[in-house]
């Protein structure tokens, strides 16, 4: 049975969407402080006793796999800052799913063997500027050289890489072509992400660079016959393109201006064991509380998925989506896990 069929029959919501892709945040901590992800004053961290232990992560993940999940992504915070990250990755690697991570890359040099042993072959790595000063400004830390060294290391070890770039007007929108040029000689995918609103990230519409604006820049810099629109995979959040003869590709994740909710197959587990059926949902179901009380989490999972809104946690038009009263009821991104 292929994964699409499996998704269609497993864990359906009331809009007919199957859910085969679980994203697990394993920590709220991070070694960077990206301005679009977390507030300047930091976040109040959940006490450790309320966070999932490694055993609890594996138990919950196994339950999801039994219900049809066939892909798991680890995220955070920065997943690799968690002290037992390697053990968690190794154990999840035995569940027989496609296992991957989203990471800022700063610690990957310590995990190359772990990734290989766990069967991780692709990684999403985040970078928002190719210029050192701007990289340091957006991350509020000075790890530019470390980042590049580690990216080369991943590349040299044969990992398939996707680079996540949050595009912010007046900050890095003048680097779109520079990022695309990275795909000339390297078989990597650049993923331009529209800047999304979350609690405390100073989002406003003027900072948004839309899918249409990104394509305008692309079309200005490359002739029409060189820009190829690729076929997107089922459930793909990215609209994929490439420049003819370049080794890699680029895509746009347009959650703000062109949401892809109708094919969404994703569910999210936060580091404190809460199930979120949408990145933008402001309701959550605690699986951890029930697990610790010795209860059955399966009915909770089904209920949570059934209650999923058709679009962006119920913020189904621009007015609702851009209303700070609504989006600030959600967590900040660092506490959701991207
Ligand atoms: N620390 C890891 C990293 O940075 O890759 C994983 C967690 S991070 C929250 C996951 C992804 O969410 C990153 O690619 C980050 O750029 C993206 N992200 C964070 N805040 C965002 C926002 N407001 N809008 C769009 N993407 C955002
Ligand atoms: Fe940390 Fe990733 Fe958020 Fe940056 S985007 S602060 S690296 S969790």
UniProtKB/TrEMBL annotation:
PROSITE patterns (UniProt xref): MOAA_NIFB_PQQE, RADICAL_SAM
Domain Radical SAM core: 14-233
Gene3D superfamilies tied to this protein: Aldolase class I
InterPro entries named among the record's database cross-references: Aldolase_TIM (IPR013785), Elp3/MiaA/NifB-like_rSAM (IPR006638), MoaA (IPR013483), MoaA-like (IPR040064), MoaA_NifB_PqqE_Fe-S-bd_CS (IPR000385), MoaA_twitch (IPR010505), MoCo_biosynth_MoaA/MoaC (IPR050105), rSAM (IPR007197)
Cofactor(s) required, per the database record: [4Fe-4S] cluster
Recorded catalytic activity of this chain's protein: GTP + AH2 + S-adenosyl-L-methionine = (8S)-3',8-cyclo-7,8-dihydroguanosine 5'-triphosphate + 5'-deoxyadenosine + L-methionine + A + H(+)
PANTHER family the record matches: MOLYBDENUM COFACTOR BIOSYNTHESIS PROTEIN 1, MOLYBDOPTERIN COFACTOR SYNTHESIS PROTEIN A
Protein name: GTP 3',8-cyclase
Source species: Flavobacterium sandaracinum
């Amino acid at each position: 049975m292929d994964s699409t069929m499996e998704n269609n029959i497993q864990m359906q919501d009331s809009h007919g969407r199957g859910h085969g892709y679980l994203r697990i945040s394993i920590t709220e901590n991070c070694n960077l402080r990206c301005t679009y992800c977390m507030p300047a004053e930091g976040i109040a961290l959940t006490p450790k006793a309320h966070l999932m232990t490694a055993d609890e992560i594996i138990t919950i993940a196994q339950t999801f796999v039994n219900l049809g999940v066939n892909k798991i992504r680890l995220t955070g915070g920065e997943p690799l800052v968690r002290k037992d990250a390697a053990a968690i990755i190794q154990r999840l690697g035995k569940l027989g799913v496609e296992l991957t991570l989203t990471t800022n890359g700063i610690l990957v040099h310590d995990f190359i063997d772990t990734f290989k042993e766990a069967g991780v072959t692709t990684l999403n790595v985040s970078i928002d500027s190719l210029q050192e000063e701007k990289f340091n400004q957006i991350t509020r830390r000075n790890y530019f050289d470390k980042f590049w060294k580690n990216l080369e290391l991943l590349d040299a070890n044969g990992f398939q890489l996707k680079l996540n770039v949050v595009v912010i007007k007046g900050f890095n929108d003048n680097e779109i072509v520079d990022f695309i040029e990275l795909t000339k000689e390297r078989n990597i995918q650049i993923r331009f992400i529209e800047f999304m609103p979350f609690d405390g990230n100073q989002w406003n519409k003027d900072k948004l660079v839309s899918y249409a604006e990104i394509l305008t820049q692309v079309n200005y810099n490359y002739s029409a016959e060189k820009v190829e629109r690729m076929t997107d995979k089922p459930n793909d959040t990215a609209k994929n393109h490439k420049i003819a003869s370049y080794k890699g590709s680029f895509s746009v994740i347009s959650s703000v201006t062109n949401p892809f909710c109708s094919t969404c197959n994703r569910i999210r587990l936060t580091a404190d064991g809460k199930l979120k059926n949408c990145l933008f949902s402001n309701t959550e179901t605690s699986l951890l509380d029930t697990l610790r009380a010795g209860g059955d989490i399966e009915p909770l999972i089904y209920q949570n998925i059934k209650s999923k809104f058709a679009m962006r946690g119920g913020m189904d038009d621009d007015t609702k989506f851009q209303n700070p009263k609504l989006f600030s009821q959600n967590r900040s991104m660092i506490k959701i896990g991207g």
